[in-house]
């Protein structure tokens, strides 16, 4: 089982430090591992950042990488999870010609059914935003691409785990 | 009581702030960390610090190397023999990039080192200014930690952290890059040593249960084998280690960097493991029932093919770095922690044993290796001098007390195999990175850190020429190192592989060498060349008896090979004797 390629979502709690992204991404680069998505943000703890990284590798590789990430001086802790252990979302934006909104009735249905949100509309274009799982976003993309998309962008994954991550206790333990 | 109070007050008074420049603060930080020697090379972006060094030259000895790479290796040699943090310094741009090889070497060999680089003024960062290079970016994958300072006020905290990180836990190199404006800027200086970093736990907790489980496994083992690495030396656990193996009677083998932790002549020392290690410990790795790895990392040069490495054995791994557990070899019991503490705690849990029959197997295999390899290396009947003969002579003349600083290649394997190590921290060599050119500058640092020890550098004609310019440093600083070049007019190890695996196509391995003796003499270093066996003994004696630095070139047989050998991808037990 350890040698089957799976999707892992890695959560890395770190000190907020310039250059740390470089240090972490180098660990994947050395092993020729493609990062599917990467997001950095503040975490629930003040002064502590959180990286959310999505990769497709084997669990045995994952464990080694987890160790090498945690080894970095400014990394507090790295966790990895499979799809069923997390709740996650991605977000995306579409820029589409405004005329299509009125000429193509189908587009309105797609927007309604996909729970996408219209962020702005003007004479030339409108912007659609959608949060959800990767497959939902991909579906929406496929449906809209038929009509022509002026711009498309998708965010990295953000995720929370179902289980608790005892990062605060860990920080206390580091203190002495 | 009163006395203690005065002392306390004194420490307090030194922590009082004073208004000084960033560059003076750098020197004060180094002094506070007990640095008395640093190796470096000046240049534009680091000039303010050098200007301060000039004022403090009675307190800190700066050694001007002839190349920044030399400065890193000297700092490494200094660190490896003393256990202290080695320090080196360079300017921005090419000065900084020239440090990279030494930094990478220190990273993979866990050597504590602090590297200081100058950087262009902060307003110029990112503008491709003269001698600007992103050294923090470049050094990231090969440093334990690095940091750029753009404000003088950051200097004390960053330096304190740097020294703490470099030395604690599994040691490693740290780089501090300081912009020129930060060096000039004045600020209120106050230094406090670093006692901890929030996100960094240098030594993992040792789980008592895993220690007990390890002891039980060891006590029940019929054919246990210990393989120890540099971890024993880095944690200064030599005595605890000796006590553990002596009580349990376990045959113990070493990795290249573990060499010298216990004397070569110790009855439980069964030799070196790995590609050019000894026959018995390699073959018997695949026969032992319990493999006890202590402070080592199962490098591929140690394990050969992992698919057939010690598969029959239960593996116990004593290790300070959790990332090493299961990285290459799946362990049954991992004992995390510092080797010194773990071994101390392990000792009372062990039963006394002698494993006499099991030891006999090592002796039997040693006899085979002796007949097939060692005898011919040490007592050759052919005309050409062997590298091993030279080592034998050095052993005799130094009584095995010398620190051997070797370069990389055939001579390195021979030095590790045949040098007598009576004292710990005596085998200084580039293990993980395999950096040719390491030895000469490393020997300078080693000799300066341990002036009372005999330091003998051994290099091949190839590696020697990669940092030969450091003869200038030896000349200027009058460092009495003994320089031995085993000259076979080949890049010997590559040639050996070409002979064995590339049908003797000697692509770019033959060397036309200069007159090495004349070069050494050009630097006023006493020098001699030996080509015949009859002259070897006297020449080595003359070298060791010499008060100052000495250069000895020995012309060895051109196409000598190092055996035993585990070909790449083969199993340790398929080690070849010829």
TrEMBL record, chain A:
GO terms for biological process: isoleucine biosynthetic process; L-valine biosynthetic process. Signal peptide: none annotated. It comes from the Bacteria. GO terms for cellular component: cytosol. Pfam families: ACT_AHAS_ss (PF22629), ALS_ss_C (PF10369). PROSITE patterns: ACT. One of its GO terms (molecular function) is acetolactate synthase activity. CDD domains: ACT_AHAS (cd04878). Residues 9-89 form the ACT domain. Its EC number is 2.2.1.6. Keywords: Amino-acid biosynthesis, Branched-chain amino acid biosynthesis, Transferase. The keyword Coiled coil does not apply. Pathway: Amino-acid biosynthesis; L-valine biosynthesis; L-valine from pyruvate: step 1/4; Amino-acid biosynthesis; L-isoleucine biosynthesis; L-isoleucine from 2-oxobutanoate: step 1/4. It catalyses: 2 pyruvate + H(+) = (2S)-2-acetolactate + CO2. It is an enzyme of class 2 (transferase). Belongs to the acetolactate synthase small subunit family. This is Acetolactate synthase small subunit. The lineage of its organism: Bacteria, Pseudomonadati, Bacteroidota, Flavobacteriia, Flavobacteriales.
Automatic annotation (TrEMBL), chain B:
InterPro entries: Acetolactate_synth_lsu, AHAS_TPP, DHS-like_NAD/FAD-binding_dom, THDP-binding, Thiamin_PyroP_enz_cen_dom, Thiamin_PyroP_enz_TPP-bd_dom, TPP-bd_CS, TPP_enz. Keywords: Amino-acid biosynthesis, Branched-chain amino acid biosynthesis, FAD, Flavoprotein, Magnesium, Metal-binding, Thiamine pyrophosphate, Transferase. Its cofactor is Mg(2+); thiamine diphosphate. Residues 407-554 form the Thiamine pyrophosphate enzyme TPP-binding domain. Residues 21-136 form the Thiamine pyrophosphate enzyme N-terminal TPP-binding domain. It comes from Winogradskyella eximia. It is an enzyme of class 2 (transferase). This is Acetolactate synthase. Residues 211-346 form the Thiamine pyrophosphate enzyme central domain. The keyword Disulfide bond does not apply. GO terms for cellular component: acetolactate synthase complex. GO terms for molecular function: acetolactate synthase activity; flavin adenine dinucleotide binding; magnesium ion binding; thiamine pyrophosphate binding. CDD domains: TPP_AHAS, TPP_PYR_POX_like. It comes from the Bacteria. Coiled coil: none annotated. The keyword GTP-binding does not apply. Binds 1 Mg(2+) ion per subunit. Pathway: Amino-acid biosynthesis; L-isoleucine biosynthesis; L-isoleucine from 2-oxobutanoate: step 1/4; Amino-acid biosynthesis; L-valine biosynthesis; L-valine from pyruvate: step 1/4.
